[in-house]
């Protein structure tokens, strides 16, 4: 790929959003077969970016883009290297399979077009995240993934559980996104760099900065929330309320991998420090153990897989930050292996649910005869997840143990964590892939696609109005027509399961094409992965055998292990998921109390608070920074008529304060306005004086008109303490404005604006009256805004008068209100 391909790269990034706009129309025309033309979009993106493979294998990083906001050095720019290209191919390739799968899974659903639109927007958002070079572009796409995942998780919005899960995911990941934005801005301020491709050059300065740790914590906040690291892990299993195609896509190639991607992308700039190599392994290891233990206690296939995803993400974070040779290589291998086997297993779980009518592993058995292809795909994917040769999962696990194994306490602790976590994931993999298919056949609810269109996928049998299972002589229920999943639903699990096998068998070609360029991009230096699928006696292989042995034991005693895990969790009691609900209730309650306290509904209160803030803003800075103005002396040579004008202003002030009713106060207020206009006239501003005369006259007339039409209290109702309080607030504002103006005029006069307007008023605006030119031309928009304010005020006054006039109309004799 060359620089001339920039328009095509931009079109490829925009293609999912364009397809999302067309998806509802295509679905109305073609039904569930619309999945075929829509799947061509990510397939085309996959084929287009495959052209970059030779360049990336050669160690090149392709950059490009367009200037977005040049004044702030912000661009829409991309970075395509081994890391981003691998993600792009996973997102687009698996995305095409997911669209096909969704076509069969949601066949007949009245909102299938909307679903296609949402998942294509989600795909486009994730593509933008992984290719972003600009900080701002990364953040925009990052938040788009949160918004589109909210739409997908809450797709079945009629169910409370779906709405709760969607809000929970949005709150957690959206909050993390704000932390990410703050971290990126902090890095931008420290380095002056706003693009990722240039950030590595400034890594030494960034790590030496006193702001490094703060920036690291903020970045980790964004990454940990998005990738469900402990203690933010709770939102991901709850996201299983989404339809299974969303779960498969979310867990294999998209959103939850975004946090891991971010850590891998920023590893050269933020990594290789004590903080990095402590925080990431500790939280990653804790997430690995917590995810597998909670997963063992589940019986729902999707929940079991969801918690293994949490555990796998923890393993990826742990390896990204471990800081030993082969650690980054193991993370690269495991990320791709996980995408293959987890995407396949989620689609298998969806196929089982779609055909058998339940996801409860304790109710499922004997499906191997009626679903042989699904069974084969499940076993192949489970073998990779379990880390058995010659699958890619085996290579990844061997590389993990190669990176972790060591004689120091730190290495031993994390090696034990990896063995326990991988062993439990082995047991869960075969619990999902083997238990539903092995054993004797059972009576099951039957296929969901026999239900009426629009019935929720995954609902209990009683909620499926289209199913009428037959009953035998003894009243026993029989499964109605359980059979193999449709072809559209089989393509995904079969292709992904085989991909994990072929990547392991042809490991050297896979390493050269994907794994080594990806690891090199993460480390920002050449890394070559050479591990093969042929087992050989070594410490990592012995650790793998120990892992398999643990997994087999847990699988054989899965029921007891489930009881033990459930009991342990119940003994702990309170958890982050419950804490989220408590936090949200507290937030709503706190907002209610604050609003009730501040938003009283009384205009008088709002005005008082406004003037308190104004007075404090004027006086406190001058008091804190000792910026009080010097008191002016009595002016020499003041003319008698000037003193008279100031005396009139003071008399008007006392007239307003001492007025017996509001109408008198309004008329007295005009005295001060006219006095100010006379001052403008005396000091050489007749046009400003004329404007002031007009404004004061109109104000007095309009206010007097309103007061005569509205039935308001004729006199001031305030007494005692209220008068004192309001007087203090008024004096604070008056003294504050006076002091500020005195301080301003006592400084040296800057003639820059005067010179500018004098020079350009006639040249640019063709006017000799500088004041008029400033108001009409240089500040034309501001003047237009002031006119709009006056217009709105006039309309409000007219509305008040009309409302009051309507209220004065007496009811007719037959008016029921009058008789009442």
From TrEMBL:
Keyword set includes Acetylation: no
UniProt keyword terms in alphabetical order: Antiport, Cell membrane, Ion transport, Membrane, Transmembrane, Transmembrane helix, Transport
Positions of the MrpA C-terminal/MbhD domain: 648-710
NADH-Ubiquinone oxidoreductase (complex I) chain 5 N-terminal domain boundaries: 69-116
Topology of the protein relative to the lipid bilayer: Multi-pass membrane protein
Domain of life: Bacteria
Ranges annotated as spanning the membrane: 6-26, 33-54, 74-103, 115-132, 138-155, 167-191, 211-236, 278-297, 304-325, 331-352, 373-392, 412-434, 487-510, 537-558, 606-626, 638-656, 663-683, 689-706, 727-745, 783-801
Protein name per the record: Multicomponent Na+:H+ antiporter subunit A
